[in-house]
Amino acid sequence: MVALGREGTPADAILGVVPREVVEPATLDEAAEVLAACARDGRAVAFVGGGTELELGAPPRRLDVLLRTARLARVVEHAPADQIAVVEAGLPLGELQRRLRPHRQRLALDPPLAERATVGGVVAANAYGPRRHRFGAARDLVVGMSFVRADGVLAKGGGKVVKNVAGFDVPRLLVGSLGTLALIGTVTFRLHPLPEADRTVLVPMLDAGGLRALAAALGQAQLEPSAAAALLTGDGFQLALRFEGFPPGVAEQAQRLFALCERLGHGVEPLEEEGARAFWARHNAARSGGALRARLTFPRTGLEPAERLALRPLLASLGGAAAAIYPTLGVAFASGEPADPGAAARAVTEARAALAAAGGSLVVGAAPAEVRARVDPWGPPPPGLSLMRRVKAQLDPEERLAPGRFVGGI
């Protein structure tokens, strides 16, 4: 068996599993050659970009080769008039935004740790931030993709070239698959104009019912924030609404919000630039800090029971706990430090059961090994698991791509 790269070290480990070798191809052709060699020798492979989502999922069952995408970081094409960019998977999202800024454009994705997260990792995790309220998640902004299959064949899908495998829309399947189906090579994104004005308004004192009602009233009041996120306080919530666009439109939207909050009996606090930066920094810390991080989903109309039966009890098991809530989406992110792994694991299990009873879910995005040993990060198998297994069998029949990392041991 021919060596493909340098020897793996503990710094290269994925959830404690150290790879035998680490490779960093400089081109997609080189990456395809690596995967073809792994296919011939039956070696298991996993892919790493910025490493911001490495703790999501389960440890790989085996890991022979770790393929780092850091050198696959080119902007292949940018068509400003068409608002389209084609970029390699290893390009950090922050760097892409800097390349687009002179053209007054952006990719409207704002996950935490955007400076370090690569576009391939963001797509593989279907990551998003508070701008999902208006622009959607990674899945909604991907137009097309090139990818390297488990057998080393370079393929394309979406955009101008549509080449599906075994009847599947492969690019759509790769979004959120955590690298278990193929190596993302390049991604074609739909872009948006950079806004001329950006204003954040804080509604500082809300209980769960007030937060739910205000979030539901936004559409009826013809309010179109680009982002909507709340932070959990001691006994309530602070909701921030971000308005972006042309100055007159942003000013009008802010006035509409003031009028709506006055009717509902809520105070408002327009934030200056420094205050807005501080709020969004706290939001990002709630999303990315803490040894234990979890994503909770619930019906948008069910915020009160989700807070009472799942979110608050989970946070009570953590030190330095924080939470960010997207009330218009029915999603919350909880984080903190588990002083007692057993108590934290029980809190995860109980919160997961409470959410499931209402049609929601809980995914553990990160946790110490002592907690991971007690809970499945994904929770109970989803109804579509059999279909997911069929897709895996078609695209990676030997189960060599990040085996065991995804839902149901895929």
UniProtKB/TrEMBL annotation:
<feature type="domain" description="FAD-binding PCMH-type">
    <location>
        <begin position="15"/>
        <end position="194"/>
    </location>
</feature>
<dbReference type="InterPro" id="IPR016166">
    <property type="entry name" value="FAD-bd_PCMH"/>
</dbReference>
<dbReference type="InterPro" id="IPR016164">
    <property type="entry name" value="FAD-linked_Oxase-like_C"/>
</dbReference>
<protein>
    <submittedName>
        <fullName>FAD-linked oxidase</fullName>
    </submittedName>
</protein>
<dbReference type="GO" id="GO:0071949">
    <property type="term" value="F:FAD binding"/>
</dbReference>
<keyword id="KW-0274">FAD</keyword>
<dbReference type="InterPro" id="IPR016169">
    <property type="entry name" value="FAD-bd_PCMH_sub2"/>
</dbReference>
<dbReference type="GO" id="GO:0003824">
    <property type="term" value="F:catalytic activity"/>
</dbReference>
<dbReference type="InterPro" id="IPR006094">
    <property type="entry name" value="Oxid_FAD_bind_N"/>
</dbReference>
<dbReference type="InterPro" id="IPR036318">
    <property type="entry name" value="FAD-bd_PCMH-like_sf"/>
</dbReference>
<keyword id="KW-0285">Flavoprotein</keyword>
<dbReference type="Pfam" id="PF01565">
    <property type="entry name" value="FAD_binding_4"/>
</dbReference>
